[in-house]
């Protein structure tokens, strides 16, 4: 005969199970001021509703508006933030990973929602994460219309967390960018990354922290700062820069360099009949890439299919628009350069390749 288990220390409750509703409410109050800074005139209502509202009548000015959507997270970079106790930059990474995907097709970012999952709600910590997301939304030109904070005791440790987000943008149908616009002879323009961005951190953590046992607080001479500061450098948000470029010149396509590396992401926007050739000698990857490669004895091709190697976004433009494109980006403070060209595919099996050696 079985016996029903008895809770010996008082009745069961949500709080006793590890979920603190009051802390969650406190976190919402703390984040409201940051969310308010992201508001666009099309946003209706405030934070706290069951759904974020965006006035779609703003799209009446389009002949054929196409909505673009994307969702992403920042991967194991959150572990670096957790170890260092720095929570107000990881949100920039989240916005960049979502909105820089959306702008690739030429879409203007409109709004975003976030999902923050924690082992235990620390209101100030959650608010710091949202602060970073809100600041990123301002840089991307979009509104943060809502989100969710979930407390998962027993599944996550008290200091563990993860973030994810989803975004929406809009583009006029006849201005949609992509493979069908690319032509032989087009110029491949590279835009500099701010660092590792938010991809490849499982490799980076394995090499630098697990195997080499480097201290995140250690000053690394070749980096010019601590290892932790380098690894937490926020992902650059290119959204408004890309939109500005599409207004000044005839951009044919963009490629956001994320997981998989430069060649693989560039190949995603190249048509079957064409090929992108990128010359490594046109830039020098930052010292963090050499540190990972040398410390872990990681082969170059492995690095290149895992990390961005110093290029965060690619623009493909007609050859006669190259100078205007470079000037536009320079005026906006974006480091950029001609990295290659579009050629006929021939008997090549891939849509993009890196050639030559990196500049020293």
Automatic annotation (TrEMBL):
It comes from the Bacteria. Residues 63-171 form the PurM-like N-terminal domain. GO terms for biological process: 'de novo' IMP biosynthetic process; adenine biosynthetic process. InterPro entries: PurM-like_C_dom, PurM-like_C_sf, PurM-like_N, PurM-like_N_sf, PurM_cligase. Pfam families: AIRS, AIRS_C. Residues 183-347 form the PurM-like C-terminal domain. It is found in: Cytoplasm. GO terms for cellular component: cytosol. Pathway: Purine metabolism; IMP biosynthesis via de novo pathway; 5-amino-1-(5-phospho-D-ribosyl)imidazole from N(2)-formyl-N(1)-(5-phospho-D-ribosyl)glycinamide: step 2/2. One of its GO terms (molecular function) is phosphoribosylformylglycinamidine cyclo-ligase activity. It catalyses: 2-formamido-N(1)-(5-O-phospho-beta-D-ribosyl)acetamidine + ATP = 5-amino-1-(5-phospho-beta-D-ribosyl)imidazole + ADP + phosphate + H(+). Its EC number is 6.3.3.1. Keywords: ATP-binding, Cytoplasm, Ligase, Nucleotide-binding, Purine biosynthesis. Coiled coil: none annotated. PANTHER family: TRIFUNCTIONAL PURINE BIOSYNTHETIC PROTEIN ADENOSINE-3, TRIFUNCTIONAL PURINE BIOSYNTHETIC PROTEIN ADENOSINE-3-RELATED. Belongs to the AIR synthase family. This is Phosphoribosylformylglycinamidine cyclo-ligase. It comes from Streptomyces roseirectus. The gene is purM.
């Amino acid at each position: 005969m079985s016996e029903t288990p008895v809770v010996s220390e008082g009745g069961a409750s949500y709080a006793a199970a590890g979920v603190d509703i009051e802390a969650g409410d406190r976190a919402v109050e703390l984040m409201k001021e940051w969310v308010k800074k992201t508001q666009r005139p099309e946003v209706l209502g405030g934070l706290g509703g069951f759904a974020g509202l965006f006035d779609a009548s703003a799209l009446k000015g389009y002949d054929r508006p196409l909505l673009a959507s994307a969702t992403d997270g920042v991967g194991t970079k959150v572990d670096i933030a957790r170890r260092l106790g720095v929570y107000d930059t990881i949100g920039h990474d989240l916005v960049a990973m979502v909105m820089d995907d959306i702008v690739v097709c030429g879409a203007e970012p409109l709004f975003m929602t976030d999902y923050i999952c924690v082992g235990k709600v620390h209101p100030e910590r959650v608010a710091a994460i949202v602060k970073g997301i809100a600041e990123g939304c301002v840089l991307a030109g979009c509104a943060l219309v809502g989100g969710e904070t979930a407390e998962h005791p027993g599944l996550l440790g008290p200091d563990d967390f993860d973030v994810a987000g989803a975004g929406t943008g809009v583009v006029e149908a006849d201005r949609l960018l992509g493979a069908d616009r690319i032509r032989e002879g087009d110029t491949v323009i590279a835009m500099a990354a701010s660092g590792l961005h938010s991809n490849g951190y499982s490799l980076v953590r394995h090499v630098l922290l697990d195997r080499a046992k480097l201290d995140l607080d250690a000053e690394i001479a070749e980096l010019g700062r601590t290892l932790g500061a380098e690894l937490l450098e926020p992902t650059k948000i290119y959204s408004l820069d890309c939109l500005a470029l599409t207004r000044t010149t005839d951009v044919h396509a963009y490629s956001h360099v994320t997981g998989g590396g430069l060649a693989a992401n560039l190949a995603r926007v190249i048509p079957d009949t064409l090929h992108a050739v990128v010359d490594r000698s046109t830039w020098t990857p930052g010292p963090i890439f050499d540190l990972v490669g040398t410390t872990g004895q990681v082969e170059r091709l492995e690095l290149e299919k895992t990390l961005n190697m110093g290029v965060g976004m690619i623009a493909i433009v007609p050859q006669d628009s190259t100078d205007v494109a470079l000037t536009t980006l320079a005026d906006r403070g974006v480091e950029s350069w001609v990295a290659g060209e579009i050629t006929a595919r021939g008997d090549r099996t891939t849509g993009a390749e890196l050639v030559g050696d990196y500049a020293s």
